[in-house]
Specification:
The chain is 40% helix and 24% strand. By secondary structure, it is an alpha+beta fold. Strand 3 and strand 4 (109-121) form a beta hairpin. Helix 1 (37-62) runs antiparallel to helix 2 (64-87).
Amino acid sequence: MTAIDPHAAAPASPAGRAPTFDARRPGAPRIPLRPSLALHCAVALGAGMAAAAVWTALAPWLGNGRTLPLVVAFLAACGLAAVAWRRTQPAIIEIGPDSFAAYSRAGVRMVEGRLTGASQWGGSLLALAINAGTRRATVLVAADAAGRDAFRDLAVRARCAAGR
């Protein structure tokens, strides 16, 4: 049995299966993404502030001894939610002239559809709105998740694709 490298690039087909036709569209580059330190810090800071708010709200009524286990449980729930969020983040984005696809670290296609909008704030965050059939998904891409040139290329392609 061979070991699977979790940091390896995603295979060309979902879940590593050999399809009868190539799911990849010609001319659609794949942009690999790293975990974003900025987004992880924002999630941790938000959880910390929320825990402080829970402490501030409950400590006057329950006392410090009874509030501490509740705050620890709240932080644990926030940690589990952060881990679940981390698992839903794409590892590879493929953006073509008429389509968008995001793949997980295992190579499974997470979302596929057409870009319906793109917004960029301050050159550090790109929010991509994807119309995936009957549902709509949003993919956040931080500037530190991709290289500087790859992020700029993704922003330009997203703006061009969304303007159609």
